[in-house]
Amino acid sequence: MTAVTDQDHTEHADHAGDTVTEKDQHDTDASVERRAQQRAGAEDAAHARVENDDASGRTDSAEAADNWDDGLIARRVAEGAAAEQAAALEARSHSAQPAAPLAFDGVLRSRLDALRELVGLSRARLDNRTLAEAGRVLDEASARRRLSGQHTVVAIAGATGSGKSQLFNALAGVPISETGVRRPTTAAPIACSWSDGAASLIERLGIPPRLRRRPLQNGDLDAQLSGLVLVDLPDHDSAAVQHREHVDRILALVDAVIWVVDPEKYADAMLHERYLRPMAGHAEVMFVVLNQTDRLPGEATEQVLDDLRRLLDEDGIALGEHGEPGATVLALSALTGDGVGELRELLGQFVTERGAPARRIFADVDAVAVGLWPVYATRRRTGLSEEARDEFAARLADAVGATAAGEAAERAWARNANRACGTPWLRLWRWYQDRTEPATGRLPLRAQADEEATARQRVEHAVRTLADRASAGLPAPWAQAVREAAVRGSQGLPEALDELAARAGLPPGRPPRPGWWPAAVLAQAAMTLLQVVGGLWLLGQIIGFMAPNLGVPVLLMVAGIVGGPLIEWSCRMAAKGPARRYGTEAERRLREAAAGCGRARVLDPVAAELLRYREVREQYGKVAGVGATAGR
Fold it and tell me: pTM of the predicted model, to two decimals?
């Protein structure tokens, strides 16, 4: 084993940590001495690295030969063979002690299943942009579930100059992340794991092996924070776009986050509007740390802390006070170490519970439910009432002329009754008139172009009215789907109604004859016979063929002349009821045919869309749960 002096260590730090000592497999006395020396010069070495990074350019990267350093200082391993060897060592460590995957409870599992079903039912109705966040949450939940449930990934985020890297080093017990006056100092996220088996979690964050660290080896601290994976993020307000992209990407993947603010920028609008306010639902997996309290005199720390709590409350972030779940807010100084122990203790309790990953996913599902509220939820009753259905059928019946057809059928039946039961002389006169008029029977519907145009307009108006009523109160995407279904069904509906009216209208020929018509016909024949007999009798008396006797023939003629119209009037009165029933039946038949056509072409597709909405609304209710209700 090669001994390392203070001078050697400083030289290695000046070259950005490109030269790494070989790690011995046993903790010998020389290793203990080297650790003490390195701790003493670690901070100077970190400043030296900051000043010499640009000049050195990591020229000695070929000397790197191991994945982890000796557990005392930050390792700086270059890419290439050394990085591959580091990944292999970590993979072997991970495979040697495989961590149990994350387990979800029944409530979270059912909500994720409901969200997956909801996305599947909605793909044909909602655009991919609307469902993108839901799909991302499902993918990330599935990926996180396959990984270790014994580790908790916590990110440290903050603005430029807030001291988050300094806090990161204080928690690790050794300078790992660079600190200094140059901004931005942290250019890429750095991970520090307190136990083995977290390689897959760190790989999920996209952090390469050369940026993975080990904390100071301390039995008490290691036991207290066992299972913690701490990630130091770049500045969220960095001028470099790629730094902000790193922050946004990793914040969506970690289990919890520590927001580090300082007395100068704790009320920064960018922090509150871009990060804290949108993440208000994630309060249970959030720490808000007021750093640099050593710069505040007297009671100023409590005043700033109270104002910070006020701002967080305005952001909608629940504060974990008085035993209630919510964000943890505390003040500390990473420079002097004041309050760091309290944060370490809280982190230890937080990690030991092993509940942060599930709570993070639970909060993600809540956020998705709140975001999807406008496209799934409604505050009013939706659907088609029986009144709306009946009105639609009535409008179609009016468009097809069902009422007019019924009236025409009634008149046709009465006309045929009059013809059958009228006097022969009146029937002869009507026969003469019918020679110049259309034959009775089939009703000539849609005979003129203006009538066809009017009927088409009535059909279109009926469909629009139905679509408006069916879509009333629905979220915009589902209302649009209902209207589109109604419009598709209305295509060709006027023509279909025309054909249907021709088939279901009046049957060809004369209406059926009731049983009393033959008796009326015989009675009319008898009256006619009396008139003929009386007339011939009178004629015979006039020409002297018969003896004069005016009483009997006149009486016969008067009886025939008066009886014929009387029988016709009686038959007309008797025909009103059957004629009305005949017309009503014809109208009913046409109305039912028009309603059936409208139901098949318009009502059924609209009802199918409403049924689909009810299904997704039910699934959304399962996804929303209590969290979405609180968010609303």
Answer: 0.67
